[in-house]
């Protein structure tokens, strides 16, 4: 695209992205009803990071799908409804909406990925560790700004097939996260557990 459209006049639309796995037993295979696990949450996080890094090209992207089909954010059964792990990832990433992507340079392990954006005085850092067993330490050097406050939320799995069900709707849900430290007023060190998606909200002075 950069070769044939260096002026970036043409935008890409990524339609119906997401994981397509085996349907749940005893369901109509034509309906593509599948369970949603921490694995799907990690797929969502990595995909959103890619879209974010290429936001100058990708003008629209649509997950497949919203309710009950493929990588859905909501599953329903009669009068019941549950939020899937993918739903919670979208919730963790909502502060990136209408924000400015922040360019970063980094040296990361092979199983960690992140993206950063800024909106007014709020810096949002969203990270994903897709290793099944190993935690990872990531250091952010936040320069030319005073850090006023930090808070964080997370979605952390204990098994790759961990999911929510109608009997256990909150088996895997968003939680507060505090495994980070601030050194020398501008060095933020975050310890990311395996199978996790984390968003840190850094208020700048």
Walk me through what this model shows.
Helix 1 packs parallel to helix 2. The protein has helices spanning 38-53, 85-92; strands at residues 12-17, 58-63, 74-77, 80-83, 100-101, 112-119, 122-129, 136-141, 147-156, 175-176, 180-183, 187-192, 196-204. The model has no long low-confidence stretch (mean pLDDT 94). The protein is built from two helices and 13 strands, in the order E-H-E-E-E-H-E-E-E-E-E-E-E-E-E. Helix 1 (38-53) links the parallel strand 1 (12-17) and strand 2. The protein has 205 residues and is mainly β. The strands form four sheets. Strands 5-6-7-13-9-10 form a six-stranded antiparallel sheet, covered by helices on one side. The protein has a three-stranded antiparallel sheet with strand order 8-12-11, with no helix packed on it. Helix content is 12%, strand content 37%. The longest helix is centred in the first third of the chain and has 16 residues, at 38-53.
